[in-house]
Design goal:
single chain; globular; binds UDP-4-deoxy-4-formamido-beta-L-arabinopyranose
């Protein structure tokens, strides 16, 4: 019998990490979840166990900024690949506290690569972001679209981590890497057992929408309706979280099966279809049969007008494609919010 391959998911108790853990387990991988719990609680990890029916998923509370703890993890477990999510992700906070972001996001990734390399399991998948494209000159963006200078320390750490991985792959024959550039991940698992758990006032659109719908927020502000877009609101490529999670399974399999075309590869993970903020709000109302309280507000500093993916490379090379209908995604986001409300 084939030995099951083991994937370490750093930051695996968070929003994206928990969905990825579910998909990996359902695809037949063993998973080790490690998280320092700095921006989540056990809700999602408990949800993962319920969804998969697995009570034995190893969970390790640890900080990848600690090189000794990281090394110990690799010494005590046979790991075949790593998916690195652990990191801070609040754009605004990163502007106020850049050193916190650089130290955390870079140190943890360096430690992970170093230990993975030392233990001969140099298959590394990094969770990057479409934020590396900045305000693109041409849409949609392909992986060849030039990166723009980052507008926040957070965005800069994404670019720098991509570069750290690229350079490590170049220098060390035992290391291979894939960077997945996520567009706007939204929604929740259809079971409503895992989803986004923003602390405080949500920065992102969909959690703000669901919290407004459930009555936790009075009114959604639509940041700007005077952009040069068809309806004046910004356009994004909203990608369902389960679809996004599945892209990781394809990427891990590609690495472990030796199917990579280059030692370092980048894939856009998006739908390829732009949706405006207003279209998303209308979609949410329609999917869930309710009316949302919103008003038009001034633009938010730092927002790009429009960005969406050309996902051709992921479709053709990775064999992955976004499949979930946007209304299903928005229904899942709402089901998750109601699930949380029920627990209050
Ligand atoms: C989407 C659109 C807002 C809130 C950010 C990060 C990015 C990535 C994902 C995170 C914009 C509008 C929002 C609200 C609104 N990584 N909006 N009212 O800014 O595209 O991307 O999240 O870890 O790096 O920058 O996503 O959801 O914040 O905003 O009108 O209350 O919704 O102006 O046009 P964004 P978002």
């Amino acid at each position: 019998m084939d030995m099951k391959k083991c994937v370490l998911v750093s930051g695996g108790a968070g929003f994206i990490g928990s969905h990825v853990t579910v998909e990996l387990i359902e695809a037949g991988y063993d998973v080790i979840v490690a998280d320092n719990m700095s921006n989540c609680d056990m809700t999602c990890f408990e949800g993962v166990k319920k969804i998969t029916g697995r009570d034995d998923i190893p969970f390790i509370k640890m900080d990848f900024c600690d090189p000794v703890a990281t090394e110990l993890l690799f010494t005590t477990h046979a790991i075949d690949a790593v998916i690195h999510f652990a990191g801070f992700k609040a754009v605004g906070e990163s502007v106020a506290e850049p050193l916190k972001y650089y130290r955390n996001n870079l140190e943890s990734f360096i430690n992970v690569i170093e230990s993975a390399k030392a233990h001969g399991c140099g298959n590394i998948l990094f969770s990057s972001s479409a934020t590396v494209y900045g305000e693109p000159e041409k849409l949609p963006v392909t992986e060849e679209t030039p990166r723009q200078p980052a507008t926040s320390p957070y965005g800069n750490t994404k670019q720098m981590c991509e570069d750290i991985l690229r350079d490590s792959v170049k220098a060390y024959p035992e290391v291979r890497g894939i960077a997945l550039r996520y567009f706007n991940p939204i929604g929740a698992h259809p079971s409503a057992l895992i989803g986004e758990l923003p602390r405080g006032v949500p920065n992102n659109l969909v959690p703000f929408i669901t919290q407004t719908a459930v009555g936790k927020r009075e009114c959604l502000s639509v940041f700007g309706d005077d952009y040069p877009t068809p309806d004046g609101t910004c356009q994004r490529d909203f990608i369902d979280i389960v679809d996004l999670a599945k892209a990781h399974v394809f990427a891990v399999r590609r690495m472990l099966d030796g199917k990579m075309k280059k030692e370092y590869e980048i894939f856009n993970v998006g739908t390829g279809k732009p949706l405006s903020v207003m279209e998303l709000i209308n979609g949410f109302e329609k999917a869930n049969g309710l009316k949302l309280n919103y008003r038009i507000a001034p633009r938010r500093a730092g927002d790009v007008t429009a960005i969406w993916a050309d996902p051709t490379l992921a479709n053709e090379d990775l064999g992955w494609k976004a499949e979930r209908d946007i209304e299903d995604t928005l229904a899942a986001a709402w089901a998750w919010e109601k699930h949380l409300a029920g627990k209050d």
